[in-house]
Amino acid sequence: MYEVIVEQPFSAAHYLKGYPGKCSQIHGHNYKVQITVEGDKLDHLGLLVEFEVIKQAVKKWIDLFDHGFLNELPPFDKINPSAENLAKFFYDEVEGAIRQSGSNASTRVSCVRVFETEKCSAAYRP
Is the pLDDT of residue 106 over 90? Predict the structure, then answer.
């Protein structure tokens, strides 16, 4: 099995609606999104997936979210911008980009991890 990992940072503010503690107040994080893609076959160039496919799928959202207020940006204007929901959101975006890129059918996003701090993260796996 082959594995490719791409990490992208961004900074943003948010709050958690309905949370019974300090996180119900507006605060910020220096996030890091870590995308792990896996598959058992390489293409004719010896690549699982081009790093650029993953980076571009994440970039448009990182650019929108960076130094923004997540609670005002779709889909987080409707759902809580928790690290868990961010991980699932980035999973959906990157998985769709991989499908559109024409990568091998066995190539898939195996995990998206969103770090709120260096020591605290949440992950989504299909």
Answer: no
Residues with Cβ within 8 Å of 100's Cβ and at least 6 positions away in sequence, in order, are none
Quick: pLDDT tens for 67-97: 999 999 999 999 999 999 999 999 999 999 9
**Rounded CA separation 6/72 (Å):** 26
Which residues form the domain of 63? 2-124
CATH code, domain with 87: 3.30.479.10
First to last CA, the chain: 17
Backbone φ, ψ for residue 64 (5° rounding): -70, -45
Mean pLDDT for the chain overall: 96
| Residues carrying an active site annotation | 23, 67, 116
Classify residue 16 by its DSSP letter.
-
Residue 11 zone, left/alpha/beta (φ > 0; ψ -120 to 50; rest)? beta
* Domains identified in the chain, total number: 1
Question: pLDDT at residue 29 above 90?
Answer: yes
Structure tokens at 92: 């959906």
